[in-house]
Amino acid sequence: MREKGYETLVEGAYYNESSELLVFDLLPRNAVQTVDGHIHPIDPIIQHITPYFGQLLRQEFVGHASDSRIKVSQFRKRSIKGRMAS
Questions:
Q1: Per the structure, how many domains does the chain have?
Q2: Which pairs count as long-range contacts for 44-51, CB under 8 Å and 24+ apart, including other chains?
């Protein structure tokens, strides 16, 4: 995802500021690799978010990407809660 301009927020969750896209639930169990090496995600969650919300997510999650206590399920709950508040 980094090659496509996305930054890692937590494992399986990525944000691209220029396109204002948040993509998450991209974990190894949610992808298949074809014989020719292409990786195909299965059912990722893609949201168009405001730059303000992107900044809030950065503040909340960046620096915790390797922290095993923060899971994608927690990210989903915080993401949805944050969207409802903004």
A1: 1
A2: 45/76, 46/21, 46/22, 47/21, 47/22, 47/23, 47/79, 47/83, 48/20, 48/21, 48/22, 49/15, 49/20, 49/21, 49/22, 49/83, 50/20, 50/86, 51/17, 51/20
